[in-house]
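Why do we bother with a discrete structure alphabet at all? Because it lets us treat a fold like text: something you can write down, compare, and reason about line by line. To make this less abstract, here is a complete entry for Prolyl endopeptidase. Read it the way you would read a sentence in a foreign language you are learning: slowly, and without expecting to understand everything at once.
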Amino acid sequence: SCVGLRKLLQGLSFSVKHYSKHNHLQTVCLYSKINPPKCHILDCSGSTFTHRTVPPGSILPWRFFSCKEGTKIPSKRKQDTSITSELLYKNLLKLEQENWNVISARYNAMTKRIKEKLEELHNKYIFNSGSPRIRFGENVYFEENGCLFLSKANDADEGNVDILFSTKDLGFSDAFIQRIRISPDQRYMAISLKSENSEEATCVIMKLGHFPVMEEVIPSVFSFEWATNDVLYYTSQKNLKCQNVFMTTFTNQKHTKLVYTEQDARFFVDIYCTKDRRFLTINSNSKTTSEVWLVDCRHPFKLPALVKARTKGVIYHVEHRNDELYILTTYGEPAEYKLMKAPVASSGMENWQLVYALEKKTKLVDLEMFSDHCIMFLKNAGHLYLNVISFVSHSVQSIKLPTWACEFELESHPEHTTSTCYFQLTSPVHPPKRFAYSFKENNLIEQAVQEVPIIMNCHTTRLLAKSKDETLVPITVFHNMNSKELHRKPLLVHVYGAYGIDLNMSFQEEKLMLIEEGWILAYCHVRGGGELGLSWHKDGCQHNKLKGLHDLKACIMLLHELGFSQPKYTALVAASAGGVLAGSLCNTDPELIRAMALQAPFVDVLNTMMKTHLPLTIEEQEEWGNPLADEKCMKYIKSYCPYQNIKPQCYPSVFITAYENDQRVPLTGVLQYVQKLRKAALDHASRTSKKGNWIPNIILDIQANGSHCDSSWEDSLNE
């Protein structure tokens, strides 16, 4: 279920670029395997893989406003203004690029050393892990460097491998394979191909055999699944939105028809295939509400059947087993996820029966369905757990996982009848380590010792900071066990706090490098994120956004009080929507940090939420509010918006990475933020003109390649 429900679970921010990675909940699935030369991760869903691009430090579901303007023809006066604005924009962009070229030259020696170290770590910890392989009957499919390979499952000779085709053969030399779906009889393979500079993917259908043939090319496709051997369902993507579902056939009489259209702009549509391949689900989700339609794979031409009409505030997702729907939903009190079930023939809410309810402040990360069991991957108080539900004995077994682990990476299980569930555990400083849970033995098995051992010289500490309203906020801290005088060590603080999405705590080479060089890493799990369940997100969105800011301040102050570094050695890092809280702290409490690094930051909430012509503004209102309809909301957003609250004062140094092709955070807004911040810093310096007065570096690096925190390995290495 690539993995299962994870996409929905991460907050249902379906405007994210979660290419179906987690194929049904809203996040991304595995941060596990990286194949040279591009840092693309293979997301495996049953008989499929999906590639995701994961640059160092990324979370993926970022902030998603498009910079595309409306298509109305302007008047002559407006046209002149537009030309002038475009000219100013180009001049400003040119000046920033020239400024970057001058500034970056100062750091050549440092960047050379860092790049060499990161490349060494990348080769040591990532390339050893190999490519994920998908077993489909007796065949095994895998991808390396844009080539698709086929081998036999029981073939002892690893060299006996057939190459099916490559992306270059298909005429897509600059694209990477993002997702693969194989038809049940293995006659067809559907592949989505995406370049790093585009949000939209192209779906290519290959007819397999001794000489694979390109059967069809479908542009601008988001998700797709095979209903039968020759019937494919897919969603189309336009302007960062998915609202139409199509069915296309590969029989003698080929035809394509529209089968579903979503009319509400707040909703995003994707397709998922249940683990037993009995149903395709058409899932229409906003950030707070969802609706599911079923396509019976035995009768793919019948109209989809509604499971339950959407109810405001109720999220649900569907799996299937033995003629019963298993429904993961927020229905009922408390408004956290519960697993319920209902007969396929009578799926109305009145027939939903509770199977299992999560404990308070528990985060459901993923769910995987098997023939006789269901495994829930959970986070509670910073620790990871497995809950194994047996449908035979009607029992639940809870298994606490190693304390160093911070993130799950679930592997593909194409056969729902399998007796073992494989997954990997990782942390920012621990490379993925493979584990298995055996249903037959009823126990957890650590796989054979790998070439790369678990890092032993890094200490993991979990803290709780008391926020302004007495709420306890979790912090995860990593530091080298051999470090002395921690109050003199540099500290890198991470924050996100939006969309109900957790901070990314998967392995990243640069984090391990920092630990080896004596840095302290702190991850602040503030409200607005999803680390403590749905209520944790709700308590930090819309009119509660300032709570996330108060949480962040409390976390940094506690770290300093406990002797983890001090303000003059502290840096704050954030990406996309994390820029809201980081930028706000920079305005309200600049004395707490010495530097701030932002990647594609969302820093002008107010002006962006006022622009309804942007394709994602309406659906984003569930996260930030609607300032056009509510004056109180406008004033509240203005009170914390980073751009709106810049003032002359002593700011920390700031380094920002932005992307020319970013459709989600327009480059114009980042440029304006940088200009205003520089002016405020210089105004403060000129007013105070004391001897030795410090003027911060405010640096903008504009990347020509990549799009919204989405770069190749080489480009992210340069960053």
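What the structure line is telling us, in plain words: Residues 384 and 535 are 19 Å apart (CA to CA). Confidence is low (pLDDT under 50) at residues 1-79.
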